[in-house]
Amino acid sequence: xxxxxxxxxxxxxxxxxxxxxxxxxxxxxxxxxxxxxxxxxxxxxxxxxxxxxxxxxxxxxxxxxxxxxxxxxxxxxxxxxxxxxxxxxxxxxxxxxxxxxxxxxxxxxxxxxxxxxxxxxxxxxxxxxxxxxxxxxxxxxxxxxxxxxxxxxxxxxxxxxxxxxxxxxxxxxxxxxxxxxxxxxxxxxxxxxxxxxxxxxxxxxxxxxxxxxxxxxxxxxxxxxxxxxxxxxxxxxxxxxxxxxxxxxxxxxxxxxxxxxxxxxxxxxxxxxxxxxxxxxxxxxxxxxxxxxxxxxxxxxxxxxxxxxxxxxxxxxxxxxxxxxxxxxxxxxxxxxxxxxxxxxxxxxxxxxxxxxxxxxxxxxxxxxxxxxxxxxxxxxxxxxxxxxxxxxxxxxxxxxxxxxxxxxxxxxxxxxxxxxxxxxxxxxxxxxxxxxxxxxxxxxxxxxxxxxxxxxxxxxxxxxxxxxxxxxxxxxxxxxxxxxxxxxxxxxxxxxxxxxxxxxxxxxxxxxxxxxxxxxxxxxxxxxxxxxxxxxxxxxxxxxxxxxxxxxxxxxxxxxxxxxxxxxxxxxxxxxxxxxxxxxxxxxxxxxxxxxxxxxxxxxxxxxxxxxxxxxxxxxxxxxxxxxxxxxxxxxxxxxxxxxxxxxxxxxxxxxxxxxxxxxxxxxxxxxxxxxxxxxxxxxxxxxxxxxxxxxxxxxxxxxxxxxxxxxxxxxxxxxxxxxxxxxxxxxxxxxxxxxxxxxxxxxxxxxxxxxxxxxxxxxxxxxx
Length: 770
What we know:
GO terms for molecular function: GTPase activator activity. The chain has helices at 28-38, 45-85, 91-100, 114-129, 132-140, 143-157, 164-184, 197-206, 209-227, 238-253, 266-271, 273-299, 306-322, 328-349, 363-380, 395-412, 419-431, 441-453, 455-458, 465-473, 503-507, 513-531, 543-551, 556-574, 585-647, 679-684, 733-741, 756-767; strands spanning 436-440, 487-491, 672-678, 688-691, 701-707, 712-719, 727-732, 746-748, 752-755. The protein is α+β, with helices and mostly antiparallel strands and 770 residues long. Among the domains are: 207-412, GTPase Activation - p120GAP, domain 1, CATH 1.10.506; 672-767, no CATH class. The strands form three sheets. The chain has a four-stranded antiparallel beta sheet with strand order 3-5-6-7. It has a three-stranded antiparallel beta sheet with strand order 4-9-8. The protein has a two-stranded antiparallel ribbon with strand order 1-2. A hairpin with a 3-residue loop joins strand 8 (746-748) and strand 9 (752-755). It is globular and about 105 Å long.
């Protein structure tokens, strides 16, 4: 459920008429939601829909963690491959890289013993439920250590991304981290902008399930409709426009007039009347497109994930306290720095990395998206155009929308706090027997090791709980080899608090026994109406009849509840809280309102499930893409090792790589191919990103791919009926991998541009088994 759907959220339930009972610190409706959470016996459509949604959210949380780990592996291998390509990697380094690719073997490795497991259970309960320790740790670790710690924090310790207690605890940690960041900041301008562990944390937080879901629902359609127009050129940099213009003139006429020299200065290009004529309509169109993005984002206010809005709220609140003289514009520039710079704009500039589009957008739409992101950023900033003078021509967009964007950024901050509900969640956590996390051995030992490194700062007194637990645990075990890095289920429980056996005893100080009785009676009636066939249709609800009907069915559970609720009604009548004479009108109205709310809730649950189904599919697709990247690296490294072992003396075997890593001996130089592909085939598979070949000639174009020596490929572009190729290009596998590493996803073949990762995939598919 989203925050607004939760039974305990303000305005969602009907418990407002309880004769001043709702002045209590804990609302009866919130308590109802807690009781309802514990009820697992109802099996109606809503319960089934909620179960499916819960399962789906669990899958998204688990899959998000897998993707985070894979992305980190790909980043690491990118850097190592670079060394390989540059002939600068020793054999022992190669072996270390290969170990990074080993799969975990469930039969290898061992668990910590029972005593250690119990101590880790206590330690991780403390870390999860008192976020101040993790907050301090995130500030203390180095930039090179932060990714591993963030994996544990975001995807393990608080990995259930849709569970309010874990989300609230994680946000409490953010508040502590941000608060310190503001305390230690030396100047306003640098706040939250540098690449620090804190900024990395904020970016990682936006990549969790709810953030991804929001980006997909808000941006995907708009970006996809923009990138369909592959030939729409909206370049406004006068130097580039001038170059494109004279290239076109030269192509059409075969020469250039002396009045149009090459390589002119930016101001000369900007003063050219033809350039100005080309740019003018583009400015209008860019402002229209940017405005459509802006309107979509502003209208999405209510669907921005609660956590992201809450972080915006903290930024505003901390800025007002630390810099009381800061203007509203300056405060909004900081909020915009988080919301646009770290969340929205990266997804607009590289939509393929955020799974919003399939494949890399073509050249012109890619440039348009970059310009849109710059415009939105300038809008959220205190504008500064010193770096790119040509952007000043888009100033009207900024001026016209400045007030509107500030209103939006302020509105983002208007969300409620959660401290009371968190306190209640903590009560619930103490009574739960099934609080657990799934954590790998290396996450366990790494967190243990980081805490020990900084324990004097984290826990100066040896009487503090954290110090007691770390002293008992002793030194942290070393990291285990990757193949032994098993995932374990770690139950979480506290050593110091006594588990609460039931909600009532935990909350007796703030809720009277008659309130509790009323809430429980109402809860049981709602359960009975949901469980008895066709009971929801018969309105108004006759509570006495429903209780009698339940008490006389053949279902033992319903019988027990029916008898119990009849007794509870009698007690409430004795206390003069309800009256049989008016058909228990107050209770009957509230039960009806609950049932109505739950009916609406089912629709919301079904809608949310549908939306998250799409998110889950996208995350799984991205997982497959990352796995294929790793497979390519594996094949590459394996063959480098084979070649290196043949050469003995050399550090690498770059340039003689095969895709077939199963042979014990390096492959002989046998020419493979040619393998033939049509223009239509490569376009359909997304390998051709952009084509300058006229539509009517495309059916006559085909490509031959040959491998004269392992690791080397020739792509030849042919026209039917001509003996010789129009164009040939030699490719080394290293060059393609290097392009991929540098995020240069396009390979220019003059007439066509190819998608580098997909070319690598095609070469692997064609030549792997030859």
